[in-house]
């Protein structure tokens, strides 16, 4: 299967074509869904009634291929980006951000083999690092060899970017200040904010050779705030119509807030279309009376079978706490670079200790009618392991059921054991 995938890609098939082939293979052989692309094709077919969801998946499946092709053809510069934080600056500098996380999500199942054999990554190291490194290497001859990263992400990734630098990738590092942010004082925040502002100025010069036009940047920050407001409205409408957009499609909708899949206007049209569909009173999709609404916290997960299993077991994820959602957006009363720096150090909820995050999760339980919380992280990630421990203990004390899930980042189906635990959790909460 792995070598078949590579051969197809060398033949020039794009991701949409691969998704059709994956589904055709499943239909032919009667096997379970094996790849992320097959899950996407299936959930897309399940949403045949929604033109907006169809357009969403068009964006998802064409995102990386289009960004790379437009860059190669000289139509629109692009650069890779680690984390969704820099998108407004990329767009303000006329550069399409390509999310490094997406290449792992829709990549090839050969990536881990490359990571272990070529980069000599130990098997027990974090699967996210291996999948990203391996996949980047596999597409090295046709992709953009420029990448901006954030040193705050984690040490294993910091090392991975140096391995890519050694392969000829132009790596720009945005420095950060990792700290337990429950103890921030005004003076310390001011120093960090000034520093981040200067890092943003340098990133703009790396992106397009000159300082960012601050008026353009304002437009992008306002766009993000507008998109976030639409997303919140969609998520709230979904509470009463939880299966109109199923969990995997909702996860992709949320991912789009970080990059707009390279096409900001088209992405916003998807949100507008979905709002229009969800606001029609006759558009409720039937769902079981005892459907279990859940909170998802942590990494978004590459194992799409997890989302399918939640939905198929009588659950639905209605509230999400993943790195880019549920931030308060950018302050509109500050100059743009200052607002950007303020957002990076105080607006996001995932950076610093997980303690500050607890309150935000608590606040979503009642409005999203959640009966339990899924804490998701990747095998080998010590950061997420500590966060899950602190968070689970906190919510257990409050009497709110939680389950800690550990999955893998690389392409492939989730383990049977993981799916069994999810089914049991949803079933327990449905009684
Ligand atoms: S899963 Fe954890 S260890 Fe792995 S790259 Fe992400 S933050 Fe780093």
TrEMBL record:
Pfam families linked to this entry: HGD-D (PF06050)
Designated name of the protein: 2-hydroxyacyl-CoA dehydratase
Superkingdom per UniProt: Bacteria
Transmembrane regions listed in the UniProt entry: none
Family per record: Belongs to the FldB/FldC dehydratase alpha/beta subunit family.
